[in-house]
């Protein structure tokens, strides 16, 4: 059976094209499983997985937990807000205490970029990055690619526009790496203040006009404005952002061909997307949520084979 080239999923940058292909093909099989009347398989019944979240999360945490339970793994949930981290315990001590309970895999979200990489070099368990600061969010990029492939087939040559708060988004960077490895043409679009200067070095197109981006692309992946990460004002007001970069159903209907609309969630309705756009036939936002479980099942299953 084919195997991943890595023991951990720390970022898309560390995956090969074959790794991405293997994960997405495996996810196709697991999507069939989760749509059966009996949704569980015994693949990971001897594996214990700890979900270690140092940042708030709804979708990602629930998606991982559901994926783990669908694979029959034993699951331990850890939340920093009610833990000894508040008493000053270090990250490594926290995780080593969890590992002392014979945990095999760690799914971790942390506000510090590189935290999963730090951990993976120091512990024997497999580590999956569920988002590290504004750095990467690899499983989101994989489920986004899976969702696009369901709609468009092979992504080679397809045009993908990532629109919104690129500066504070870990989803954007992972998506750029993942899409480029599959041969897609990527554009980032947003206000100048929300597009980092290093974007040009990644070989992506850069745009500042949302209508031009929509007319160019096959898929618009719209990102949330992350006000909680913004220590300074990057634009005058949400109303002004919505006026220049918000996407409405009317804008989508006026295009000369249909495009696919995506969003990693949570949506700020009325800011980056109007409700009639988010709920339109263009949107595959709820498909992304469903596909997230299948993709995370695939990642967990394939990493467990490395043990």
Automatic annotation (TrEMBL):
InterPro entries: Asp/Orn_carbamoyltranf_P-bd, Asp/Orn_carbamoylTrfase, Asp/Orn_carbamoylTrfase_sf, Asp_carbamoyltransf, Asp_carbamoyltransf_Asp/Orn-bd. SUPFAM superfamilies: Aspartate/ornithine carbamoyltransferase. Residues 7-150 form the Aspartate/ornithine carbamoyltransferase carbamoyl-P binding domain. Its EC number is 2.1.3.2. GO terms for molecular function: amino acid binding; aspartate carbamoyltransferase activity. It is an enzyme of class 2 (transferase). Keywords: Pyrimidine biosynthesis, Transferase. It catalyses: carbamoyl phosphate + L-aspartate = N-carbamoyl-L-aspartate + phosphate + H(+). The keyword GTP-binding does not apply. Pathway: Pyrimidine metabolism; UMP biosynthesis via de novo pathway; (S)-dihydroorotate from bicarbonate: step 2/3. It comes from the Bacteria. L-aspartate binds at residues 87, 170, 224. Residues 157-303 form the Aspartate/ornithine carbamoyltransferase Asp/Orn-binding domain. Pfam families: OTCace (PF00185), OTCace_N (PF02729). Heterododecamer (2C3:3R2) of six catalytic PyrB chains organized as two trimers (C3), and six regulatory PyrI chains organized as three dimers (R2). Catalyzes the condensation of carbamoyl phosphate and aspartate to form carbamoyl aspartate and inorganic phosphate, the committed step in the de novo pyrimidine nucleotide biosynthesis pathway. Belongs to the aspartate/ornithine carbamoyltransferase superfamily. ATCase family. This is Aspartate carbamoyltransferase. It comes from Fibrella rubiginis.
């Amino acid at each position: 059976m084919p195997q991943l080239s890595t023991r951990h999923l720390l970022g898309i940058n560390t995956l090969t094209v074959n790794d991405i292909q293997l994960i997405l093909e495996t996810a196709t099989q697991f999507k069939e499983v989760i749509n059966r009347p009996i949704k569980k398989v015994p693949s990971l019944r001897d594996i214990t997985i700890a979900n270690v979240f140092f940042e708030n999360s709804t979708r990602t945490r629930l998606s991982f937990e559901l994926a783990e339970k669908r694979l029959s793994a034993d699951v331990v949930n850890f939340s920093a807000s009610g833990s000894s981290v508040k008493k000053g315990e270090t990250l490594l001590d926290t995780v080593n205490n969890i590992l002392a309970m014979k945990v095999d895999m760690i799914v971790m979200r942390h506000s510090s970029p590189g935290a999963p990489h730090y951990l993976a070099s120091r512990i024997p368990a497999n580590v999956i990055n569920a988002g590290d600061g504004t750095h990467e969010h690899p499983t989101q990029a994989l489920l986004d690619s899976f969702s696009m492939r369901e709609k468009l087939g092979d992504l080679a040559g397809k045009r993908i526009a990532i629109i919104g708060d690129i500066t504070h988004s870990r989803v954007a960077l992972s998506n750029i790496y993942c899409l480029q490895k599959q041969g897609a043409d990527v554009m980032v679009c947003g206000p100048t203040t929300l597009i980092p200067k290093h974007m040009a070095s990644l070989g992506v197109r850069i745009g500042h006009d949302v209508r031009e981006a929509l007319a160019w692309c096959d898929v618009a992946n719209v990102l949330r404005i992350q006000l909680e990460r913004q220590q300074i004002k990057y634009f005058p007001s949400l109303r002004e952002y919505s006026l220049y970069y918000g996407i409405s159903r009317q804008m989508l209907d006026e295009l000369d061909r249909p495009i696919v609309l995506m969003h990693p969630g949570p949506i700020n309705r009325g800011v980056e997307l109007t409700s009639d756009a988010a709920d339109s036939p263009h949107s595959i936002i709820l498909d992304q949520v469903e596909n997230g479980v299948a993709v995370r099942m695939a990642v967990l299953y394939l990493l467990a084979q490395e043990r």
